[in-house]
Task: structure prediction
Amino acid sequence: MCGIVGAVAQRDVAEILLEGLRRLEYRGYDSAGLAVVDNSDELHRVRRIGKVAELTDAVSQSPVHGGTGIAHTRWATHGEPSERNAHPHVSGDRFVVVHNGIIENHETLRALLQNEGFEFTSGTDTEVIVHLVNHEQQKGGTLLEAVQRTVTQLEGAYGMVVMDRTDSDRLIVARSGSPLVIGLGLGENFIASDQLALFPVTRRFMYLEEGDVAEVTRTDVTILDSNGHPVEREARDSEIEHDAGDKGQYRHYMLKEIHEQPEALTNTLEGRLGEHQVNLSVLGKEGQELLNRTRAVQIVACGTSYNSAMVARYWFEELAGIPCRVEIASEFRYRKFFVPEDCLFITLSQSGETADTLAALKLAKELGYMATLAICNVPGSSMVRESDMALMTHAGAEIGVASTKAFTTQLANLLLLVTAVGRHTGMTAEQEASVVSALKALPQILKSTLSMSDDIEKMAEAFADKHHSLFLGRGSQYPIAMEGALKLKEISYIHAEAYAAGELKHGPLALIDNDMPVIVVAPNNDLLEKLKSNMEEVRARGGQLFVFADRNASLKNGEGVQVLPVEASPEIIAPIVYTVPLQLLSYYVAVIKGTDVDQPRNLAKSVTVE
Ligand code: HGA
Result:
């Protein structure tokens, strides 16, 4: 969330900053701004409400020149989206700050600073930082020292960059709870909240650790750890193979990413499937030994990742026969937890920077779980670095705010993991071989499933004027119904609820009328007959059913029932397969409704605030 870009260079940096913001825009897009210091030490700040395009227009109308600058695209947490609240914030026409995170003690600090005579011009928590830096600098010393003293007074989370108009040879950066990377160039250096922002200028990065404060000049990077001691942070070439690029033939990133799933799944499974066995040697010998020892699992995640964890719960208990608990990260981090013996703690996150999940991971390490494992899409992310082991999803950069390929690749990795654990807890070699063969077939099945696209586009028309909807599933398809409902809410703004189909009669049936579409995921499994009864309950009350059913399930269109046949698939991978039509449905409903599919209102990607 919130994108930060900074540059210290000899050349003009405004274009680099704007391009960086465009690349980060999916993380926050209610307003944007930049500030650049020119050769005469003049500060030029431009801020605009709305998207980065508004800022780009403003800069192209009155260009800004200068080799040192910082920029930000905002997802408001404190203070409404407006020009006055857009970053960068300035103090005394000299100090300039962009910030990602939340300063929790901002009210106390604001009162203190106002007493000292500082005038606030925004409603943000961020503005306290810049006045505090100003206040500390007045006590003397370097800007780096002023920032060090500043951060000791901050409670909450921050990734920040500080610039001094009168000394534009350097930028000071600090991180605690919000990611920042330093991009290394030749005679120029850069900063960003995500390496993606800097790919046009460098592929070499240094990742700051929690509590680090650093000084970045054109030629040097000096880093101090949380105790103020100088530290070296390794410089690494980015492992992200290809740039997210553009949307290609697709109208939206989301549609592109939905269609990339067969390839993403192929990549995620590459090297991890033997002839009849799962191969997780990527975790190393020690990692595999930890899986041998695992006798219980705790998964913590948020949003879409939580839904994939919920599918894994069915898998762990059914296939591996071990207890699996799943908890929303923002709940886990604030409640007391019982830690079973030999319990593996798993976090799931596309970005690896999800603030609540990271906090839960830290807590888990203190609580004494046997080991921690992250399933994540971004190499080098905080979650990957802070976990004992990581399984990368290799889905490629996901730009659409509504997660698609990150979800299905997480599921595939979870199934690999269930199998690698399960073979030590009672799963037979035949069961393992059938998981392996199902996973091998998966990319091709997904390809066939994508060919439902045109039919789903037609089906979507029935949703354009609806305000509410219900999604139903049973067993491991219940979390898929949850994910379908989440997708529809996120991008079409239609209220959607998911229920385990057996729950209908305990309340939600009261909502059914012909204005409430009911979407059902109906693979051909043991629960199909039960599900058919649940559908009858809806039909008998005038509900409109839209059913995604296995083409062999002999479900037919009829009065109030529209059936879309789905490619047959082995039951174990059916949750992954049925996700795809639900993604397409929410996509086409959103397109018909004319919403901003890739950047839906009020949301942002990579939730780095609590
Ligand atoms: N709290 C700051 C920054 C918000 C943020 O980091 N969002 O992801 C603000 O509201 O401006």
The first helix runs from residue 14 to 24.
